[in-house]
Amino acid sequence: MFRSIKAVVRKPLIRRRIAGRLSSWIVDGVLHYCVANMPGAVPRTSTFALSSATHPFTLELANKGFPRALIENEHLLRGLNVYEGKITCRAVAEALRLAYARAIELLAA
After folding, report:
1. Residue 18 forms beta bridges with which residues?
2. d(CA 43, CA 51)
3. Could you give phi then psi for residue 41, rounded to 5 degrees?
4. Closest CA to 57 of 84, 77, 87
5. What pLDDT is stored for residue 21 in this prediction?
6. Reported pTM
7. Which of 42, 12, 41, 32 is nearest to 23 (CA)?
8. pLDDT < 50 stretches in the chain
9. What would the 3-class secondary structure string for the chain be?
10. Per-residue pLDDT, 16
11. What pLDDT is stored for residue 31 in this prediction?
């Protein structure tokens, strides 16, 4: 029900109890902080929210097809990480120290 987020600790930790549990703690100088799994706490509401947010993109992909939908919609294009074996997300390419290819150029070809 909780997920851990790590951050470097430079100041003393103030511990608080949330729902009977410590919400944060330090291990090896790293702060671990927990937040509730909100979608799990309200699954019906979170499902409606996710569906409402993604539905327009789903319709666009269905109506225009791939790759046209990505070429015409910057938000969909930015969600593409790999295409035809080439990494199209600069951050992923840099993190893996691999070649980066511009998605728009690959899709338009």
Report:
1. 21
2. 12
3. -75, -30
4. 77
5. 60
6. 0.61
7. 32
8. 1-14
9. CEEEEEEECCCCCCCCEECCEECEEEECCEEEEEEECHHHHCHHHHHHHHHHHHHHHHHHHHHHCCCHHHHHCHHHHHCCCEECCEECCHHHHHHHCCCECCHHHHHHC
10. 52
11. 80
Q: What is the pLDDT of residue 62?
A: 98
Query: What is the identity of the amino acid at 105?
Result: E
Q: CA-CA distances (angstroms) from residue 10 to 22, 30, 63?
A: 19, 9, 52
Look at residue 2 in the predicted model and tell me its pLDDT: 41
Q: How many residues does the chain have?
A: 109
Where do we find the tokens 């996710």? 50
Token pair for 87 = 């990494």
Q: Which of 57, 72, 60, 78 is nearest to 108 (CA)?
A: 72
